[in-house]
């Protein structure tokens, strides 16, 4: 079976429960520092579907959705252009280790929705496999620390 990467559109709303389930899977497998608001996942999906200037959802398919990515663009003065934040990237466990993540980044190189000057992502310290993938693709750790306030 071939893997397909495609932008989720309003015509794909019926897949929203699947995406929400994968979002919950991401946070269950790799818990963040503070709890993720699971009840807000449908709001995230609807917001990105109806306001694509805020970001994009990419569905990763193999007959059915087996993964997703959230892509959020923002302007960086430091980099002099748009940084595309890969806010979330998730592939269901049975499909990992097959090059699907690497394929996503190849797809992203060809399918540039915004004219970004850099890609950015986060990886938890315990997700060694993802970190190895990202470093093999040229991602490097920055010396500055990311701080957040809620």
TrEMBL record:
Q: Does the keyword Transferase apply?
A: yes
What Gene Ontology molecular function terms does this protein carry? acyltransferase activity, transferring groups other than amino-acyl groups
Q: Which of UniProt's keywords are assigned here?
A: Transferase
Question: PROSITE patterns, per this entry?
Answer: GNAT (PS51186)
- The reply on keyword Transferase is yes
- Tell me the ranges covered by the N-acetyltransferase domain, including all copies: 3-150
Q: What is this protein called?
A: N-acetyltransferase domain-containing protein
Q: Native species of this protein? A: Tuwongella immobilis
Task: State the organism's lineage.
Answer: Bacteria, Pseudomonadati, Planctomycetota, Planctomycetia, Gemmatales
